[in-house]
Amino acid sequence: MPRPSCPRCQRPLRHCLCALIPELDSRTRVLILQHPSEVDHALNTARLAALGLRNAELRVGEVFEDLPQLLAQPDYRACLLFPGEESVALSAYAPADKPLLLVVPDGTWRKARKLLYLNPVLAALPRVSLGTVAPSRYRLRKAPQEGALSTIEAIAAALDVLEAPQRFDALLRPFDVLIEGQIAAMGQDVFIRNHQR
Questions:
Q1: Cα 112 from chain centroid?
Q2: Does Transport show up as a keyword for this record (predicted)?
């Protein structure tokens, strides 16, 4: 019999994170496109990010038929948060700038690339990246490359840059508690042996 879970954060009821999830306003609209393989992931940071931002939306799938409509929002400039040679480092908005519709693929690097491949409209968007970032707080997973972040960390870092001096640290509170809970569940010895190298 499955354990009862919170319908909002989808965590087991006794580990519900809703009290820690903020309701943050942002000029930037965030559209998270989540690969279906991430939905049942224990951490599912994309869901936490979407819940914590009033101006965010989470869509799950591989092919997004309505993507042209989602991107055609006259009050925003659509761009894809995805590193690469053709990406431009984000910088703070000037007062007259039209805010971004920041499209964020959620999945492993391989799955994120697949989303771009399956959705040519997505692949055609101008790309932006974070530049220099603090090391990931996701201590349970070895980053595949320098500067790799979880989805919620990448979104918070992007918003910190775009909307400075406003900060989005509160978005990471449930993520930090989730990480600490996972470490506690596995035991400190197992964590040190498998993750502290």
A1: 12
A2: no
* Six-digit token string for 103: 């499209």
Render pLDDT for 74-119 as a digit per residue (tens, 0 to 9): 999 999 999 888 899 999 999 899 999 999 999 988 999 999 999 9
Alpha helix (H) residue ranges in the chain: 45-52, 67-71, 109-118, 120-123, 151-162, 173-186, 188-195
Whether the full predicted model's pTM is greater than 0.90, yes or no, is no
> CA-to-CA distance for 85 and 68, rounded, in angstroms?
25
Instruction: Find the angle CA(50)-CA(17)-CA(163) to the nearest 5 degrees.
Output: 40
Directed axis angle between helix 45-52 and helix 173-186, to 10°? 150
Tokens of 80: 């894809």
